[in-house]
Amino acid sequence: MSDQLIFTYVIDGDDFTRAGEASSSVKNKLKMIGVDSDVIRRVAIAMYEGEINMVIHANGGVITVTISDTDITMVLADSGPGIPDIDKAMQEGYSTAREEVRSLGFGAGMGLPNMKRYTDEMHIDTVLGTGTTITMKVNL
Amino acid sequence: MTIREIQEALDAQFLYGEELAELDADFVFSADMMSDVLAFGSKCSVLMTGLCNPQVVRTAEMLDIVCIIFVRGKMPDEHMLTLAMDKGIAILATEHYMFTACGILYEHGLRGGA
What CATH number corresponds to the domain at position A9? Predict the structure, then answer.
């Protein structure tokens, strides 16, 4: 079996100004190991959207990034309220974000659709009142 | 169009990144919603916005944007400028409103990428 690199990040749900630090760290690591720049951009955007979502909706969570020879997999797990209607949440423009979040430039209902747009595979596993785990994969 | 030419056309201040002034910019994305920038701005090398918080710099970083233009006299704070320095993103600030600033850059040949 080939080698894998695994990175884990704990996302602070209380500090909006720090949201994105984990995605930034992953972007730098991918650059250092020489991953194609288009792949890096897709991973960075998808993970950043997920990281912002974790802060906005779920009071933080844990992101695990696995880099293998064939793909980059991001698993974003939170203990937030869960997503009541995934089909609606996947519609561009549908958002449950608070007005305060919109004033910060997010909550336009583009997060989940963007995550799907920029990745090759995305799977959402959600339980109301328990949490959500989103798995995204970008092929190398 | 170089970042220097953009700065001159918009009567903008260089808040950070004069050493990046000769970098070329082709496409510009203008929005106050970072969600929209992330959705539609992936071809762009310049971000123009009236939103002023650290996530603007983070958004630019994720998209490999080389220059952020703050319109309507918005001024980023020290934390934002430090983040921009760390990421190598030039920061301009202009008094022009966004529509006017877009018009000026369009007249100079820059486009929106869509």
Answer: 3.30.565.10
Cβ pair B62:A104 closer than 8 A: no
Helix, strand, coil content of chain A in percent (nearest 5): 35, 30, 35
Nearest residue, CB atoms, A107 vs list B35, B59, B62? B35
3-state secondary structure of B67: strand
Distance CA B27, CA B43 (A): 7
Closest-CA residue of chain A to B60: A45
What integer best gives the mean pLDDT of chain A? 93
Pairwise CB contact (< 8 Å): B34 & A17 = no
Please give the ipTM for the structure prediction.
0.90
Give domain limits for chain B.
Answer: 3-107
Substitution target in B43, B58, B80, B87 with the highest count of A β-carbons within 10 Å is B58
Q: How many other C-beta atoms lie within 10 A of the C-beta of residue A78? A: 25
From first to last of its 140 residues, chain A has per-residue pLDDT tens of 568 999 999 999 888 889 999 999 999 999 999 999 999 999 999 999 999 999 989 999 999 999 999 999 999 999 999 999 999 999 988 888 888 888 889 888 888 999 999 999 999 999 999 999 999 999 99
- Residue B106: name the closest of B10, B16, B37 by CA: B10
Domain that holds residue A71: 5-139
* Topology adopted by domain B3-107: 3.40.1390
Tell me the chain A residues in contact with residue B55 when contact means C-beta distances shorter than 8 Å. 16-17, 19-20, 52, 104-106
